[in-house]
């Protein structure tokens, strides 16, 4: 960090062709917001803050008028070569040439954004140049449109006698997305509440509509929307604003003239009466696969007072298990969990509030609607407990104070908070500073009821939709038939010339994909830019009885964080399988004489949240020595830190589970895990493969893979809750006998917190050695309701301290960037292809995501070693080392810096061990990569896992690879 932050400019000051419109202090984050406008109409928000992780984003309001996916496909194509950087895929090419902490692009319902962040100044300006050229001056090749958008292609591309197929990265991505219940519900939600606006369209693209998008329409959309007059720029950090603006001016603004584009979204005309809609998604789960949400359109989300009040009211009603709307919904027994879109949504120009249930049989729309309306009516008449309101306001106070990079970089979190009101014509400052709206709310609360009249107005609001998402067992087959009918319609009038054109276009695309790019036109870092030091956050340790207590001073902004890690003694096999259910349930049940609702209200009042989780690890030098631990974590304002200590003590020493509550939680958990299979199929496929290879892999699969889902289904469907209660009692006793390590992270002034109440509940103990059985060494396939595949192969390798480990990490990054992405995404049409290596478990994997192929992809995995034989460029090696080095320098923040250091040290991954690893990594050679691939990634050592829509055995090419899958339904 720099010693002195750049000074903020003055209001009215001219910085080139920019004018400073506002300068606002942001005391909550110790920063300053500068708002500027450019002569061309571009808007720029800059946050000056002492954070070396600089962030950039350029956002364009995009308001598609159909569901062809034009905004989404444009997001892809814009990143596939630009005037200054005419390589095939500068975005993916920059990933290994950078030390970025975030790089991505996203399409929402009414905007598209291109953000990145990095801690390296040179890297920031490298990426800025690439992003500016990509968004404003993309090449937009026809072949790029065909590759990532849509195309007709013969099954054998050069043989017009073979069947025609629809292909395209986005096309395949959206086929997968529209098999996900959450995605289907989200699209239907926007269409149901705002049927006359852009939100009625599928901005990602509906598979049946994507083929209607033309290349000319894509180019026209870019010309209209990706213009400085329609751009919202954002920067954050401690780099000088003048230099950033100068780069944007010279690279972009100087090349444009003013343009007018009306992207305003009007008000949605109000409904005269409530409506009911039903949508379906492909699923055979007719018993628990349905959802119902009752939703209302509200006022402008850019109004800070309206937005805050609905956010607070939503939290009061639904924010915890004991909340006055959540509890009746769950305890009704109608469904297993709140519906995916329950709560307040400010994603739309006019906000929305919804509540409902999932885990339902179909046909329950009326019952859920009645339950929601009757419960809200009773709450409005009886009034809300003032303590619940104060507890919710306490959560907003924590949100304002906390500065964390958890989840995504803090600078990016700030951008998204600011964008909400900014894009919809409101004051961007209100997205960052809640004080005025909070003070006004508190004043109104002091004068009388605020939320009860809001609820009565909601109940009287006719702009309401009861939306049911229903499973349809026949829909997958219907979707496939519809695709064939669409292909038949598109090709009905094809002549021999048309067929020859498709063959020629396929050949041309293949030719373009095979053309070598000149990556030297892209900016890059060198190995000299990699930080040599390993972060070593300071901390002290002491023994308190049988507990090791660590205290880490960090500038937490007045929050205190507690993390208690217990390395477990050896667990009986039956308890191992239910351990993740224990950690899920323990913070959502009762404790110390309080039932789950009372405990949930207590957590809301005095903490910023508590959690429990299971972790698996290995010793640095021995993959056979597996560590299994449970971690209890929580945070609180420093004034409430003693109460947090008591809460964690109660959860650890006096948890209380009841049959009724546990039954509710298991159904919630089941609904969540089932919906994750289609959206995260690559994760589950990797787990299936890795379970065959090592104790850590087998343990991870038991705890978080499809085996965990099967265990949960067996308990719910077999009505084994009473047995589980008995297992939980045994687990609780064993967890307390684990080897404890307690960490307090806080400011220097708050580090003296008395922890005796918690440490006294820990007798201290010894860690055991889990010895899970490996899964049979047989290719595994699991079938579910998806039209695409998620394919994985995995290999066992070496522990962290082995000399080959750094080379394997570098190899994973090289294969991902140079081989798997081109082969699986560009040529194969999958949304993504990846290689990964986890140095602490020694597991190497290759995988694909939303992949239209199965056998072809496994063939690509097999050819990876042959591909390496042709890699000779030192540049390729340098980029892979740069990419790998990022994984060794994770982005931390005050809440995680001490945690990362303390727990790594106690697991044996000390700064010295990590520094030695980094030194070896920086010295890896191409010969090392070929040697470790030939040594460890051989076909006989591979294990395979697939999550797919149908039995892979018998599919073309599978048997030829020598694969025979053991198949089961999810």
Features:
970 residues; alpha+beta; 33 helices
Question: Can you walk through the features of this model?
Answer:
By secondary structure, the chain is of the alpha+beta class. The strands form six sheets. Strands 1, 2, 3, 4, 5, 6, 7, 8 and 11 form a nine-stranded mixed sheet that branches. Strand 3 and strand 4 (43-49) form a beta hairpin. Helix 18 (573-586) packs across helix 25 (721-736), helix 21 (659-679) packs antiparallel against helix 24 (706-717) and helix 22 packs antiparallel against helix 23 (695-704).
The count of helical stretches stands at: 33
Backbone structural class? alpha+beta
End-to-end separation = 50 Å
Helix content: 40-55%
Approximately what portion of the residues adopt beta-strand conformation? 15-25%
Low-confidence stretches: none
Q: Categorize the overall geometry.
A: globular
Query: Average pLDDT value?
Result: 95
- Please compute the radius of gyration using only Cα atoms: 28 Å
Oligomer class: single chain
The count of strands amounts to 31
Major sheet summary line: 9 strands, mixed
Short note summarizing the structure:
By secondary structure, the protein is an alpha+beta fold.
Topology:
Layout: E1 14-15, E2 18-26, E3 31-38, E4 43-49, E5 54-61, H1 70-78, H2 90-94, E6 100-103, E7 106-107, E8 111-118, H3 121-136, H4 142-148, E9 151-154, E10 164-167, H5 169-177, H6 181-193, H7 215-225, E11 232-237, H8 241-251, E12 275-282, E13 290-300, H9 304-318, H10 326-331, E14 337-338, E15 343-345, E16 350-360, H11 365-382, H12 386-401, H13 410-423, H14 435-447, H15 451-460, E17 464-472, H16 475-490, H17 496-514, E18 540-544, E19 547-553, E20 559-567, H18 573-586, E21 590-591, H19 596-606, E22 610-619, E23 622-637, H20 641-653, E24 655-656, H21 659-679, H22 681-690, H23 695-704, H24 706-717, H25 721-736, E25 739-746, H26 756-759, E26 780-783, E27 790-796, H27 805-827, E28 832-838, E29 843-849, H28 855-862, H29 864-869, H30 874-888, H31 897-906, H32 911-922, H33 926-936, E30 943-948, E31 966-969
Parallel strand pairs: 4-11, 12-17, 19-25, 26-30, 26-31
Antiparallel strand pairs: 1-2, 2-3, 3-4, 5-8, 5-11, 6-8, 7-8, 9-10, 13-16, 13-17, 14-16, 15-16, 18-19, 20-23, 20-25, 21-24, 22-23, 27-29, 27-30, 28-29
